[in-house]
Known about the structure:
Layout: E1 85-87, E2 92-95, H1 97-108, H2 115-118, H3 130-139, E3 152-157, E4 166-167, E5 177-178, E6 186-187, H4 204-210, E7 212-217, H5 224-244, E8 258-261, H6 265-271, E9 276-278, H7 291-303
Parallel strand pairs: 2-8, 3-7, 7-8
Antiparallel strand pairs: 1-2, 4-9, 5-6
Amino acid sequence: xxxxxxxxxxxxxxxxxxxxxxxxxxxxxxxxxxxxxxxxxxxxxxxxxxxxxxxxxxxxxxxxxxxxxxxxxxxxxxxxxxxxxxxxxxxxxxxxxxxxxxxxxxxxxxxxxxxxxxxxxxxxxxxxxxxxxxxxxxxxxxxxxxxxxxxxxxxxxxxxxxxxxxxxxxxxxxxxxxxxxxxxxxxxxxxxxxxxxxxxxxxxxxxxxxxxxxxxxxxxxxxxxxxxxxxxxxxxxxxxxxxxxxxxxxxxxxxxxxxxxxxxxxxxxxxxxxxxxxxxxxxxxxxxxxxxxxxxxxxxxxxxx
Length: 305
């Protein structure tokens, strides 16, 4: 049987015409009554300009005068006149433990100046050490002058016994002073005259003392005269070093000073124990790292049962 399929005719309808639109012309376009703000243009309020005293600063904050000018280390000791002067010539000043603590915190929270302004002077460049001078000259012009941007704090203990009653970072007078010159004390000449080294860690304490304010203190085994005598020697050495390095007539050069700690070591132990590296009994406090003592302690622990 054959099946017949019948196709119904498809009714074609014309599409619905679009609604009538008004005729657009340039005359019919009107700007909006509310202007659209432009975020790229500054907003200027209406009314008169504010008086000059209400306006912000017209100049940027102070910056170094030259691109390569180093940033200087700030210290609470750079204005010594605010502290009591206990010796007029050479000038020596007095501070207490709280002032020392504040000054150390200020120094510790600052960045070290750009090394290009402090090295290779800190390495030790002796004018007779041609090998070391040739090494640095081959790479760049060596900076043989003392850096004016660096200002530290060096603590010196009278007597030099650092096995007890030692403040953090304290060193002995023999590490920085040439004690053979009694009448005219000077800093040690620590720049190596021969050989070659780009480190010279052994001279860093003496080099930093030259560009630091120095704080002198003693324990119960020394009297006040001994403390003042060492303070005068260090202040004299600072004056001699200033003349040798032509810092005297240079208004841009810092002036480093000597201070005596008026607080006793026992008082520092009681009020500022975090400043103590070794207490009056000779025991480590744990407030500072002594690598030699740390190695010894770890060796004892490792060899124990």
